[in-house]
Specification:
The complex is a heterodimer of chains A (262) and B (156). Chain A has a five-stranded antiparallel beta sheet with strand order 4-5-10-6-7. Chain A has two domains: 5-50, Uridine Diphospho-n-acetylenolpyruvylglucosamine Reductase, domain 2 (2-Layer Sandwich), CATH 3.30.43.10; 58-261, Uridine Diphospho-n-acetylenolpyruvylglucosamine Reductase, domain 3 (2-Layer Sandwich). Helices cover 30% and strands 26% of the residues of chain A. Chain A is globular and about 55 Å long. Chain A is an alpha+beta fold and 262 residues long. Chain A has helices at 12-21, 34-39, 75-80, 82-87, 89-95, 101-104, 109-115, 122-128, 142-145, 212-217, 246-260; strands at residues 5-8, 25-28, 47-50, 60-63, 66-70, 132-135, 139-141, 146-148, 151-152, 160-166, 170-177, 184-193, 196-202, 209-210. Chain B has two domains: 2-76, Beta-grasp domain (Ubiquitin-like (UB roll), Roll), CATH 3.10.20; 87-154, DNA polymerase, domain 1 (Orthogonal Bundle). Chain B has a five-stranded mixed beta sheet, covered by helices on one side. In chain B, strand 3 (50-53) and strand 4 (56-59) form a beta hairpin. Classes of the chains: A alpha+beta (262), B alpha+beta (156). The complex binds FE2/S2 (inorganic) cluster (FES) (2 copies). One FE2/S2 (inorganic) cluster is lined by residues 39-42, 44-49, 59, 61 of chain B.
């Protein structure tokens, strides 16, 4: 790891101003991505601003039909939250599939979304549930947030404060885990709300995206797996690596989506 | 850059001078001489470096020492009470849950975390919860038996 200047912030405002005052700073949330990236010397920030003391960025509440998860809430906290389990069980399930117990004790929802790894689990839930990402500056709708591989609508220094998930009528998540590391080779999140059905896929492309063919097939709100069974997903542009070919991922998209609601 | 850190390790307050990039596991092993915490992979996969921070199992190879300022750290060295092993250590010994022993400190720390979250885990739940710990020797079976036995003991 290259060395850097380290500082911790005692408030969101302080974190943002420290970030702004630095040449090339990174926020440190749970560190489950940032630290490995720094260890591999894939990144060389001048400053690391630790958000670990920002207790006001932790916690889960219910607010007018939505579950609001603050940015520094860990995957373990989402997975074990009685509120999430009762209102959006699929979200609690998803959080419990990320990494392993030790990673879930550190990794945060804000960190995962800001990083936008192509194989991250949370982006599929954010997209399918049509969540809103609240930052220090504005509210970003899910459909505008994920802009590409490791790329988001966040501006330099913009800090995610919370994610607001509308409570769906029905939702489910399923992923096919990489056999060694357990990340989703393909994951599918299906959600039905008063606004319709949304299906979001992660692991298959540059970042999570909506699979509109399935959404159209389920437009009447009846999530019958048979209705999508024969829909062939094109493998064009899908990720292809030693773990799974694009063709295989295309096949998994259909299978995981049916299992998500099975 | 050099920073002074102060934290509680195994119930004692410790201080040291570290760099921004110093990992907690380096601080434990190289500064404090607590070499019971192992580095297997250094890439957050094997779990040999597992310790508890504020009562939660975490991987000390993926934590900055500076981040642990003021936190409460428990390592494998802090478990036994003199010559009396912690029930989890005793169960690992009793059930022959180790061979070379390299993974064992991390296994034991994770295992205590498993029982803290789930006082009566099934074999299946134990196997799932061990997802972040790799053992190259035992085949895991006796580790699962040890954790099950220790859970009974810890619940008494
Ligand atoms: S050394 Fe930390 S997980 Fe392997
Ligand atoms: S006992 Fe040798 S690695 Fe587990």
């Amino acid at each position: 790891m290259y060395d850097f200047s380290y500082s911790r912030a005692s408030s969101s405002d302080e974190a943002i101003s420290k970030h702004g005052a630095s040449d090339d700073a990174r926020y440190l949330a749970g560190g489950m991505t940032l630290i490995p990236v720094l260890k591999q010397r894939l990144d060389q920030p001048s400053d690391v601003v630790d958000l670990g003391d920002l207790e006001d960025l932790r916690g889960i509440t219910e607010d007018s039909g939505a579950i609001v998860v603050k940015a520094m809430t860990t995957h373990h906290q989402v997975h074990s939250s009685e509120l999430v389990k009762s209102r959006i069980p699929a979200l609690a399930d998803l959080a419990g599939t990320i990494g392993d117990p030790m990673v879930r004790n550190r990794g945060t929802i804000g960190g995962s979304l800001a990083n936008n790894d192509p194989a991250a689990s949370y982006p599929s839930a954010v997209l399918a549930l049509n969540a809103t990402i609240n930052t220090d500056k504005r509210s970003i709708p899910a459909d505008e947030f994920f802009t590409g591989m490791f790329d988001t609508a966040l501006e330099e220094g913009e800090l995610i404060v919370a994610v607001s998930f509308p409570i769906p009528e029905q939702a489910g998540y399923k992923h096919f885990p990489n056999p060694a590391s357990r990340y989703p080779i393909v994951g599918s999140f299906v959600a039905k709300t008063s606004d319709g059905v949304r299906v979001a896929i992660t692991g298959a492309g540059a970042c999570a995206y909506r699979q509109t063919e399935f959404e159209e097939a389920w437009a009447d709100g009846n999530l019958d797996p048979d209705k999508i069974k024969d829909i062939k997903i094109s493998d064009e542009g899908l990720n292809s690596d030693i773990h799974a070919s694009a063709e295989y991922r295309a096949h998994l998209i259909n299978v995981m989506t049916r299992r998500a609601i099975g | 850059m050099s920073y002074s850190v102060k934290m509680t390790v195994n119930g004692k307050e410790v201080t040291g001078e570290v760099e921004g990039r110093t990992l907690l596991v380096q601080f434990l092993r190289e500064h404090l001489g607590l070499t019971g915490t192992h580095v297997g992979c250094d890439t957050s996969q094997c779990g040999a470096c597992t310790i508890h921070m504020n009562g939660r199992a975490v991987k000390s190879c993926a934590l900055l020492a500076t981040h642990c300022e003021g936190q409460d750290i428990l390592t494998i060295e802090g478990l036994a009470d003199g010559d009396t092993l912690h029930p989890m250590q005793e169960a690992f010994r009793e059930h022959h849950a180790l061979q070379c022993g390299f993974c064992t400190p991390g296994m034991v720390m994770s295992a205590i975390g498993i029982v803290d979250d789930n006082p009566d885990p099934s074999h299946d739940e134990i196997r799932h919860a061990l997802e972040g710990n790799i053992c190259r020797c035992t085949g895991y079976h006796n580790i699962v038996l040890a954790i099950e036995a220790a859970a009974q003991e810890m619940n008494k």
